[in-house]
Amino acid sequence: MKPADFHVLHTVTDCARHYGLPDPAHPLLALINLADIRRPAVPTPVVAQFYTVALKRGLQGPVYYGRQTYDFNGGLLTFLAPGQVVLAGAGPDVSELSGWALVFHPDLLRKYPLGQKITGYGFFAYAVHEALHVSAKEEDLLESVLRSLQHEYEQPIDAFSPDLLVAQLEVLLGYASRFYHRQFLTRRIAEHDLLSRFEAQLAVHFAQADHPPLPTVQHVAAALHVSPAYLSDMLRALTGQTAQQHLHHALIEKAKQLLLGTSLTVGETAFQLGFAYPHYFTRLFKSKTGLTPAAFRFSAH
Question: Which of 55, 201, 285, 300 is the most exposed place for a label (fewest CB within 10 A)?
Fold first, then answer.
């Protein structure tokens, strides 16, 4: 798409006005009652330059999580990071939509540790179909934090306002992390399928004869139609290892096969695996096995 095809929302105020709502009480943060939004969605993609955490209720129809359909009777928690694209299309009926959206600009976090920490929350990298289902009890917990945040949000802005708002934001995101971990552990049947498909994708990759490129988490995630952060979090919940660690393990196992089962030199083995420079391969192999590739080959004979 061309830049003109996007509708960019630069500020929190832009967001409120886009949905036909009053200007927010704070220039860097807004609390939105989703029941107040009744403006029909337009097909133009929207790019927001701020974070959004939203708890949605009243969605009529299927909701997608990890490319699979679930009947969510409770709330649905979604997350958007700056620069992500949102496109309204054919989907659930939102005529009875309720809940809340918390919108906050990165500038609010600049001088706080949360400004760096927030980039480590994997759920901000997830697509909409990877949203989080929350139980009624979890909804109540989130809304108790939100009420405290709203109380501060409605106060006149003073020197203490940013500290108090950011502290409560961090509590809210901490609970979100806990709930995501819970969901990962309770979706094991569906996600074991993701692990199987991940391993099958690596097997197909290494079966290529013409020096395939070095596999990356981004490449494998794209082939599986999930985000890299989602893939890594799922694998960590299932196996205790990230997607990158799984890739390294697969590379080392394939390297061992080539070193012991072929006459390829160490350099040729590195190129066959996709390494541009043999010394990178040697460094990785030694870090994982304690031996250089040449020493490993010698020790096996």
Answer: 300
